[in-house]
Specification:
With 301 residues, the protein is of the alpha/beta class. It has a single domain, classed as Rossmann fold. The protein contains eleven helices and ten strands. It has an eight-stranded mixed beta sheet, with helices on both faces. Strands 1-2 form a two-stranded antiparallel ribbon. A hairpin with a 2-residue loop joins β1 and β2. The longest helix is centred in the last third of the chain and has 19 residues. Bound molecules: thiamine diphosphate and iron/sulfur cluster. The site of thiamine diphosphate has 17 residues, from α2 and α4.
Length: 301
């Protein structure tokens, strides 16, 4: 019997040779999420995968049925249920003796906010799934409302004067569940990202990967600057590139140089920050405080 028709093409989860993100998709030019999907595609390679994507730009990417810009089977879930749906699919695969890797692909709104209950529950049960959050620091698909990933000072449609509180530390929150693997990856450090994605795809138990994914539309940045913005965020120490094993062992993968120039380029390259709210001294202090904590966590036991 032939495989069922999935996403407009005959494709069983054991037989995939397409890139995960096909050309001709409708994502905006310079979308960081698109770059992330291409990285994921390389890391997945020929492995059988099942994607679960809640409401977000990433599910619009698929396009109208029966066609799809995804070269992998995708289940569209509600915001609140992505990690629960993925958990169920992972159990079904195991019961059927399949090695299908189940991957949740979700934005920060679906991760930090609306999907947090089932995400936390799946992590607590140590479900065998990989959850990847592409963090564009807003609800991008609905026009750019603030999420709890939106940084201090960022102007969004619901924080017109600039957000007055900073973003949650999602990696620390997920690592606190004691999951086998939690990591942040940078779109500008492709070797590091590739190896960590490969590791996260192949290992078992609950794995969480966080990527900063610039959104030129919402960040009011140049589409061609997407990767450079992430490089500057990493250099300035704003976006630490690290991995945390079993909720305890922390490894710093990329050393920032904490340069003012990188911080200037990062903020100067975007039109979304209100400098009246985002005092530069406060940003410097927050970076230093976070790195002091990371040095302690990554030091010898
Ligand atoms: C329960 C619920 N509330 C609101 C919406 C409308 N909605 C669809 S996508 C979206 C934004 C998602 O933001 P995020 O998860 O950060 O992903 P992004 O759009 O930025 O890619 C919203 C609010 C919805 N689909 N379901
Ligand atoms: S709105 Fe932002 S995240 Fe959504 S497709 Fe466009 S650039 Fe990508």
């Amino acid at each position: 019997m032939s495989e069922p028709l999935l996403n407009g093409m005959a494709m069983g989860p054991e037989d995939r040779s397409d890139p995960i993100l096909r050309s001709g998709n409708t994502n905006c030019g310079g979308c960081g999420m698109s770059v992330g999907l291409q990285m994921l595609s390389r890391a997945v390679s020929e492995r059988p995968v099942q994607m679960v994507i809640p409401a977000c730009c990433g599910i619009v990417t698929a396009g109208p049925y029966p066609y799809s810009a995804y070269g992998a089977p995708v289940v569209a879930s509600t915001f609140a249920s992505a990690a629960a749906v993925a958990s169920g699919l992972s159990h079904v695969a195991r019961l059927n003796g399949k090695n299908t890797r189940v991957i949740c692909w979700a934005g920060d709104g679906g991760t930090y906010d609306i999907g947090m209950a089932t995400l936390s529950a799946a992590a607590e049960r140590n479900e065998d799934i990989l959850y990847i959050c592409y963090d564009n620091e807003i609800y991008g698909n609905t026009g750019g409302q603030r999420s709890s990933a939106t940084p201090l000072g960022a102007v969004t449609t619901t924080t017109p004067a600039g957000k007055t509180v900073g973003k949650k530390d999602i990696l620390a929150i997920m690592a606190a569940h004691g999951i086998p693997y939690a990591a942040s990856i940078s779109l500008a450090h492709i070797d590091d990202a590739f190896h960590k994605l490969r590791f996260a795809i192949d290992c078992h138990g609950f794995r969480f990967v966080h990527m900063l994914a610039p959104c030129p539309t919402g960040w009011k940045s140049e589409p061609g600057d997407t990767v450079a913005l992430v490089r500057d965020a990493v250099s300035a120490g704003l976006f630490p590139v690290i991995e945390i094993f079993d909720g305890t062992r922390t490894v710093i993968n990329v050393e920032p140089d904490f340069s003012d120039a990188a911080l200037d380029r990062y903020f100067g390259g975007q039109g979304r920050f209100n400098s009246d709210v985002m005092n530069r001294d406060d940003v410097d202090a927050a970076i230093q405080k976070n790195w002091k904590r990371l040095r302690l966590l990554s030091g010898p036991f």
